């Protein structure tokens, strides 16, 4: 089980998550998010993580020039797309990418998955109209596909209390969390981070 802790807003938070066993950390480049980081801070956080931790950049319909500038400044290993980016746009940067799909009630999940054959992974998240992610809401885990052409990551409303069950029900490749390990938006709680990672890996 791989665990990503998303929305790091300080070097100390990232170092603590890595020390607690996080496989990946996320940097949010979506300006409307309370977890948004500027380039200098993002670069400092990325370089504090060490060579064996995946540093993920999160984007929501970010214009090409802006994303290129971020890539020049911050050493990102994986791009996570949370907007309406088609596969060609996700592929255009020549980096491994993960596409987030929000689980609208009427969505044909298998049909959506095959639209991203080049993704390193696909993340399934809760759907709230008008909100691209970080909702703190779960979706019906029974809708999680049993098989997939690409590794599937579960997100949406995960917490230390529900993550073991979520892993058991979905048998996902990995989990991603933001709000469920925070004391307030953008502030990670070290105890919750540690509990989350322990419970996810145990589950
Ligand atoms: O974290 C954010 O602020 C965010 C903003 C815009 C799009 C996605 C965002 N976060 C991602 O959303 C999911 C679920 O988050 P939560 O655990 O329910 O708070 C997760 O993949 C985050 O990386």
From TrEMBL:
Coiled coil: none annotated. It is an enzyme of class 5 (isomerase). GO terms for molecular function: phosphoribosylanthranilate isomerase activity. It catalyses: N-(5-phospho-beta-D-ribosyl)anthranilate = 1-(2-carboxyphenylamino)-1-deoxy-D-ribulose 5-phosphate. Keywords: Amino-acid biosynthesis, Aromatic amino acid biosynthesis, Isomerase, Tryptophan biosynthesis. Its EC number is 5.3.1.24. Residues 3-198 form the N-(5'phosphoribosyl) anthranilate isomerase (PRAI) domain. Pathway: Amino-acid biosynthesis; L-tryptophan biosynthesis; L-tryptophan from chorismate: step 3/5. It holds the Pfam family PRAI. Belongs to the TrpF family. This is N-(5'-phosphoribosyl)anthranilate isomerase. The lineage of its organism: Bacteria, Pseudomonadati, Pseudomonadota, Gammaproteobacteria, Cellvibrionales. The gene is trpF.
